[in-house]
Amino acid sequence: MTPVELSRTVLHAVRRAVDEGELSVTVPERAVVTPPGPGGCGDYATNIALQLAGAAGQPPRRVAEILRARLAGEAFIGEVVVTGPGFLNFSLEGNASALLVEEVLRRGRRYGHAEEFSGTVVRLRCPAEVRAVVVTDALARLLRSQGDLVRVECEGRPAPEWETVLGVDSSHSSSHTASHTASHSGSHPQTRPSGPDPLPDLDVTVHPVPVPAPADPLPLGRDAARWALLYPAAHDRPRIPGDHLAQRETNPLFRVRYAHARTRALLRNAADLGFHPEPGPVSDAEALLAALGDHSRILTATATHRSPDRLARHLVAVADATLPLLPAVLPLGEEKPSAAHRARLALAEAAGTVLAGGLSLLGIDAPDHL
């Protein structure tokens, strides 16, 4: 069960409680499901009871207990515990992790993307300043991944090097205002409205934030330059040149790309040994499974809040949770590959897939070899 599926299950429980007269509330459009916070337990948690308590006219813990009774018997949910003022905490059954890995591998780099047009048209505007242009380019990719139709307008002509070196699409630029709706590979929904582009539902100006780049990022090359401009929060000053080219653990970009490359190497090595990934239960991988399960929510939040740095930080968290798993993926010495090895290999492949997909949305390459 993925967080998205768990969110739907929680909303179904709310709807049943309303239909049966135990709650008198409007069923919300979504229930936020995240890894448990301090004092929580299990695999995931939601604050839906606190969210509904006011409208229901009941204490949050009472609302939580009403929902807990309906959620405890759901498929793939092993235990539901109420903690704190009314948080619902879920422990999933053992095969839930395998289902999550299967979902990631099935969707590939599009895991967490919308599968159809959202109905929202967004116009992004930005000044012809290198960080603003790169941030806008990344936002366009992210919004398209969530099914939005995006039109980008740049107030001025971007420098040609921003396209050739940084990978920004400026093919429609002019000296005044330019717009385009071109899709980027892997980030567009599968269906789009036909005919002329409709008027935008949202008009977003990427200005006066982000803070302008303090120096020319072009000498860093495409990947490091884009990371340098996208990893800091919009109100923070980018570090240029920084250590973005350094191949050491203190460089977050290196850790993300290194973790991805290691997962690809393990797949090659496993194939040489004659075994392949097969999703199954994996012990001592709770942090990684939680990070992978949270990927869809992160993409949605990143697009909603127009903050590519959220995705960049999430990829670092995925990489940091992936690396400790990798030494136990392959059998050692004369050991024969077991179901546990195949399950860990599948989890490693899923982690690499999420890392590659996330980097592509930032416009950054995920090489198989470093």
Key features?
370 residues; alpha/beta; 4-stranded antiparallel sheet; 4-stranded mixed sheet; 12 helices; 8 strands
Beta-strand portion reads: 5-15%
The number of distinct helices, counting runs of at least 4 residues, comes to 12
Q: Portion of residues in helices?
A: 40-55%
Structural class: alpha/beta
For the CA atoms, what is the radius of gyration? 22 Å
Write a short abstract of this structure.
With 370 residues, the chain is of the alpha/beta class. The protein has helices spanning 3-19, 48-56, 60-71, 95-107, 130-145, 160-164, 222-230, 252-273, 286-293, 295-305, 308-322, 339-361; strands at residues 33-34, 44-46, 77-83, 87-92, 121-127, 149-155, 177-180, 202-205. The protein contains twelve helices and eight strands.
Explain how this protein is built.
It is a single chain. With 370 residues, the chain is an alpha/beta fold. Helix content is 43%, strand content 11%. It has helices spanning 3-19, 48-56, 60-71, 95-107, 130-145, 160-164, 222-230, 252-273, 286-293, 295-305, 308-322, 339-361, and strands at residues 33-34, 44-46, 77-83, 87-92, 121-127, 149-155, 177-180, 202-205. Strands 1-2-4-3 form a 4-stranded antiparallel sheet. Strands 7-6-5-8 form a 4-stranded mixed sheet, covered by helices on one side. The longest helix is centred in the C-terminal third of the chain and has 23 residues, at 339-361. The two termini are 34 Å apart. Residues 171-186 have low confidence and may be disordered.
